[in-house]
Specification:
Blueprint: H1 6-16, H2 25-37, H3 43-52, H4 54-64, H5 70-79, H6 87-105, H7 110-119, E1 123-125, E2 147-151, E3 162-166, H8 173-188, E4 192-195, H9 201-212, E5 216-219, H10 233-242, E6 244-247, H11 257-270, E7 273-276, H12 284-294, E8 299-301, H13 312-319, E9 324-325, H14 330-340, H15 360-369, H16 376-383, H17 387-399, E10 403-406, E11 409-412
Parallel strand pairs: 3-4, 3-7, 4-5, 5-6, 7-8, 8-9
Antiparallel strand pairs: 1-2, 2-6, 10-11
Helix pairs in contact: 1-2, 1-7, 3-4, 4-5, 8-9, 8-17, 9-10, 11-12, 15-16, 15-17, 16-17
Length: 413
């Protein structure tokens, strides 16, 4: 990268916004460069940034591209980065990494990334800026180099407990009901909801959180300007208006299978606990659960029918002792709140898990409807429930296919 000019540093300052008042702009520009160069979770890059700092590490790597490894290796030994006790072996690791980064180093353009972020109103976060979610630092060398956000609210921090809700893209009706109940319960408890913006369980979690008025965070697998999947673009815009979209890859980066797996570690890190609602034998949600367990975060799994292929992954997590069974929708919420204060124990309430069909508020709403569609206010009057309770019950009933919007009101399906 060429020496950072005034225009580039001004662009970095604009991207950081008010939260970057105390940030070294040259270091921040170097971090943006690194985010263009490396794939998410590159531990060699993480070790270099931690040991040498973004600017020095970038300069040494640029020299190494021309086979001048002395500055890079010497700096690593001096800073005692992991592996420095065996310089010969470390040199091999560095050579491999530089070859991996070489194609992007040849066309490095920090200004292009900043311009693409500005085009969609995205903000840049670096570890030194206000609003950086310190929870992701638990990922160590696999932590993100930078984060890009499109948000109306700060990312989860010490002031708000966060629950990760993940699961199958091809969910069942029962899975949608469970996700909705868990998310609604978490919202009532004041939790933020973290998920991946995908079809299926992710989308249910985001939609219920939005309907409940609680912040929800969608972690993207590509750049902050790459809203994917196409069918969820409007949903993701709604997430940005009420919560936050988050990405670590540089703007313009397309989602790939590998990046979906890599982003799962961010979902696990941002959440105080993670619940897997449904997961097939090879579901990506199991990858999120694995990351959460590695980070020491509580993991929960919702049981399903023993013959259901959509629940095989959840059953394996429970059977192998890698996840706690969800007996009541409050269980993951209790786990999140306990983890937020450093207590990952706690007993599971001795209460049965209710389905939405058995939910007394859903039944009251259905009874109030009778045979014709009614406005929500009339349903509240007939059922003796508050407007908020009616809204939640209608959402659950709609997920089951029991009610449909009709003529400005609601009717039985």
């Amino acid at each position: 990268m060429k020496p950072a000019g005034t225009d580039l540093l001004d662009a970095v300052a604009r991207a950081l916004g008010a939260g970057g008042a105390s940030v070294d702009l040259v270091q921040a520009a170097s971090r943006v460069a690194w985010s263009v160069i490396v794939e998410p979770g590159d531990s060699v890059a993480g070790d270099l940034l931690a040991g040498l700092g973004p600017e020095r590490a970038l300069g040494a790597v640029l020299l190494a591209v021309d086979q001048e490894f002395d500055a890079l290796l010497g700096g690593c030994v001096e800073a005692e980065v992991p592996g420095a006790e065996d310089p010969a072996e470390l040199l091999g690791v560095l050579r491999t990494a530089v070859e991996r980064w070489r194609p992007r180093l040849a066309n490095l353009d920090v200004g292009e990334a900043l311009a693409a972020a500005a085009a969609v109103g995205a903000r840049l976060l670096v570890p030194e800026s206000d609003g950086w979610p310190s929870a992701v630092d638990d990922l160590g060398p696999h932590a993100p180099v930078v984060l890009w956000t499109r948000s109306a609210a700060p990312l989860p921090g010490s002031d708000r407990v966060a629950l990760g809700v993940v699961g199958s893209r091809a969910n069942t009706v029962a899975g949608a009901e469970a996700a909705a109940e868990i998310t609604s319960t978490a919202a009532d408890a004041g939790c933020a909801i973290v998920s991946g913006g995908a079809y299926g369980i992710d989308a249910v979690a985001h939609r219920v959180a939005i309907a409940a008025g609680t912040p929800t965070i969608a972690v993207l697998a590509g750049g902050i300007d790459q809203l994917y999947p196409a069918g969820n673009v409007q949903l993701l815009h709604n997430v940005a208006r009420q919560g936050a979209l988050v990405a670590e890859s540089a703007p313009g980066t397309r989602p790939t299978r590998w990046r979906f797996l890599a982003r799962n570690r961010l979902i696990a890190a941002l959440a105080d606990a993670t619940v897997v609602v449904e997961a097939g034998a090879r579901s990506g949600a199991l990858n999120t659960a694995h990351h959460a367990a590695q980070l020491g975060r509580p993991v929960f799994a919702v049981p399903g029918a023993f013959a259901s292929s959509a629940s095989v992954g959840c059953h394996r997590l429970i059977a192998q002792g890698r996840a706690q069974i969800v007996v009541h929708p409050r269980d993951p919420v209790a786990g999140s709140r306990a983890a937020a204060v450093g207590d990952i124990g706690g007993a599971v309430p001795d209460e049965p898990l209710l389905s939405a069909r058995q939910d007394p508020e859903v039944l009251r709403v259905l009874d109030a409807l009778g045979r014709r569609a009614l406005p929500q206010e009339e349903i509240a009057r007939r059922s003796g429930m508050s407007a908020a309770e009616v809204a939640d019950a209608l959402a659950l009933a709609q997920l089951q296919g029991l009610v449909v919007p009709s003529g400005g009101g609601w009717g039985r399906a």
